[in-house]
Amino acid sequence: MNKRNLLLILLLASLALNLLLIGGIGWRMANARDYVQPLVPPSTGWILRDLSEERRAELQPAAREGFESVRPARMEMFRAQRRVNELIGSDSFDQEALEDAFAQLRELSMDYQALSHERTTEILELLTPEERQAATEFVRRGGRDRAGRDGPRGRDLPPRNFEPDNDQRRQ
Hints:
Elements: H1 3-30, H2 45-49, H3 53-89, H4 95-125, H5 129-140, H6 166-170
Helix pairs in contact: 3-4
């Protein structure tokens, strides 16, 4: 085998490997939502979603008040994120300005998160233990039931406090 044939084979192998990697990365990015499980959804609406209509109506004013009180902090955080995006996309890169914008975004994000957690706690405090258990299950499975699949990435997770029988332990 001469050098030219060896070089051609290596080039084709390299091209095939690169295409495989690019395809894998592209597929992963296209399906990223299947691999990301938020710890807690971004608003408190999820707490009320699985409740009876009467109970939802009863708790709706508290949920709305909580959402409205958090909205200004959320908007500030979004403005800071837009500023970061603008600086990243700017023709003239300013590292110091970007670092300042990231610092502001971190601070506003932490403020928003703390306020959001306070409001979530206030609403959860109004729930019965059974309703809080339903909210826990909602978060545990990563949100709404996705096409009949339980849990993150479609894994079937056993219910909380589940004790497998002997047949299931062997699997």
